[in-house]
Write a structure and sequence with these properties.
Radius of gyration of chain B: 24 Å
Number of strands of chain B: 0
Distance between the termini of chain A: 41 Å
Radius of gyration of chain A: 25 Å
Order of helices and strands of chain B: HH
Number of helices of chain A: 18
Structural class of chain A: alpha/beta
Largest sheet of chain B: none
Number of domains of chain A: 3
CATH architecture of the largest domain in chain A: 3-Layer(aba) Sandwich
Strand content of chain A: 15-25%
Structural class of chain B: mainly alpha
CATH superfamily of the largest domain in chain A: Vaccinia Virus protein VP39
Oligomer: heterodimer
Shape of chain B: elongated
Largest sheet of chain A: 7 strands, mixed
Shape of chain A: globular
């Protein structure tokens, strides 16, 4: 019997009356309360749960004999730890689309067995490398008779509307709004931001907005609408629920579009042929062979050339870049080649901050992506010049996200790209000054050649 | 096309400012849409598809029932 003081309830697990997620002894468990466990016992016995895990991306679940003080007759199950934790505000369009697909396909499959998903939060999804996993087991429940699918508005707020905006090239704005884990992108915000072409193509959106405004203005009308909607929903059969979900799934298909490239999409391919790209690949590959740990973080990964080198050597890789187009490409490549890479969209100089209620529910990005090995290649000058960070602060950041080894590319002042970034500003640093700052946090630093004379690869060890 | 234009024109008053009661559940419009979907789907199933299937059955030969002894059990849902 576990005492309450021996477990740590996950701060984001507070809404679901069926149970809660907790941590104990380094493992993740879920407590399914007594009143909800019958359903899960049936799903396990019938083999349906195993099928959902195998074919529909449901998280692996293993029953345990554990008990918790105060939770009589509860079922305690364990789940594998999936890292890194990532949130929808860090996903490019392709990852958000994949999350929407898994959610809807699971909901449709459950509808065939007269079950529903109670919510359609993207927080129910984690990415294990490029594989999408639905982790909120207790979202599965018997149908709520108040609607065909009570989670429909959540699905629209967190999947359909953001995907539509991303397809219009408004990915950064959509992701900024997705940091609101209570509201997502509501109808009013969406109709304001969506292009005229989208609104003309989907006049139902304007009609829905008009209905919402009308309902806002009249309490009596709101009550009447609610009663009518409830009456219609309670008299429907499971087949109609399935049709409704299938219709949403059909509407999802055209939202899967490759976003337009930006100035970084072809950067690596277009590097001046005078530079020896293979030499850099060789040196980074050798350093990864000799020093890489089980987890690798690639900061400023571009299309992931070096992330793929790390993943091919068996590491679990997290790749971060501010370019959605590059991250999108990397996600598709990782899926196709089955590489354990989780690519995320984030500005390293201004990453996803802590969020949720009282700003404690969701940890900030750099706390979640700490890795044994960090690669910071071709990024130093962007942090120093564009983001105006001193090398003291850059070195501190490197130390905070790295637990063992840093592979850091130094870019000299006479590098072609420095003049492109610095403009008329006076920039002053040297290899020695950068090494000195890194030396505050790393005990040994080796210098190696890169692909051009103006760059060096520094291997820094803690 | 005409239907789309009609919907757009009808929805134009969505952009006319009005005094609004802020206390509206954001899921209410979704509930209304689902209620309409359920009503239309239910009506279609009972009053349109039902009579159509009866009408078709007058002209289409029904297939012979399979011998129950030759059916295999579907077993576990797997």
């Amino acid at each position: 019997m576990l005492k309450r003081s021996e477990i740590s309830v996950d701060p984001s697990s507070y809404v679901d009356p069926q149970g809660f997620l907790f941590h104990h002894d380094g493992q993740i468990y879920r407590c399914i309360r007594a009143e909800a466990r019958d359903l899960f016992d049936q799903l396990t016995k019938s083999g349906h749960l195993a099928r959902l895990e195998r074919e529909f991306g449901l998280v692996a679940t293993t029953a345990t004999d554990l008990q918790i003080e105060g939770e009589r007759d509860a079922l305690i199950v364990s789940h594998p730890r999936i890292e890194p934790l990532s949130y929808c505000a860090e996903w490019p369009a392709s990852m958000l689309w994949e999350a929407a697909r898994v959610t809807l396909d699971l909901a449709i499959e459950l509808a065939d067995h007269d079950l529903i998903l109670q919510d359609a939060y993207p927080w129910n999804i984690l990415f294990d490398g490029p594989r999408c996993v639905f982790v909120d087991l207790t979202s599965i429940a018997s149908p709520d008779l108040s609607a065909l699918w009570p989670a429909h508005e959540q699905y629209e707020s967190y999947f359909s509307r953001p995907l539509t905006l991303m397809n219009e090239g408004k990915g950064n704005a959509a992701r900024a709004l997705l940091t609101n884990n209570i509201q997502g992108i509501d109808l009013e915000t969406f109709t304001t931001m969506a292009s005229a072409a989208t609104l003309l193509r989907r006049p139902g959106l304007l009609l829905s907005r008009a209905i919402e405004k009308k309902l806002q203005a009249s309490q009596a009308l709101k009550t009447k609408a609610q009663d009518m909607a409830l009456k219609a929903a309670t008299q429907t059969k499971p087949e109609i629920r399935r049709k409704f979900l299938t219709r949403l799934r059909k509407q999802l298909t055209p939202l899967r579009r490759t976003p337009k490239g930006d100035c970084w999409t072809h950067y690596y391919e277009d590097i001046n042929t005078a530079f020896d790209k293979q030499a850099k690949l060789n040196i980074v590959g050798r350093l990864l062979d000799e020093h890489a740990g089980a987890s690798v973080l690639d900061l400023g990964c571009n299309t992931g050339v070096f992330s793929m080198e790390a993943a091919k050597r068996g590491a679990r890789v997290i790749s971060i870049d501010a370019s959605e187009s590059c991250i999108n490409l990397l996600f598709e490549t990782a899926r196709t080649q089955e590489l354990k890479i989780t690519p995320l969209v984030a500005d390293i100089a201004c990453p996803t901050h802590t969020g949720g209620f009282m700003a404690t529910q969701y940890a900030p990005l750099f706390e979640r992506v700490k890795s044994d090995t960090v690669m910071c290649l071709g990024l130093m000058h962007h942090l120093h010049i564009n983001a105006r960070q001193s090398f003291e602060r850059i070195a501190t950041l490197m130390s905070e996200v790295c637990t063992s080894t840093l592979i850091f590319e130094f870019v000299a002042l006479d590098d072609d790209n420095i003049s492109l970034l610095s403009g008329l500003r006076k920039i002053d640093y040297s290899l020695d000054s950068v090494r000195d700052e890194l030396g505050v946090h790393f005990t040994s630093i080796e210098t190696h050649d890169s692909d051009r004379p103006t760059r060096k690869i520094l291997l820094c060890k803690k | 096309m005409i239907f789309r234009l009609a919907v757009i024109v009808f929805s134009a008053f969505a952009f006319i400012p009005s005094t609004a009661n802020a206390y509206v559940d954001p899921g209410l419009v979704s509930m209304v849409i689902q209620g309409l979907f359920a009503a239309v789907a239910g009506f279609t199933a009972v009053y349109v598809l039902g009579p159509w299937r009866w009408f078709k059955s007058l002209f289409v030969k029904s297939k012979p029932a399979t011998d129950p002894e030759t059916k295999t059990s579907s077993g576990q849902d797997n």
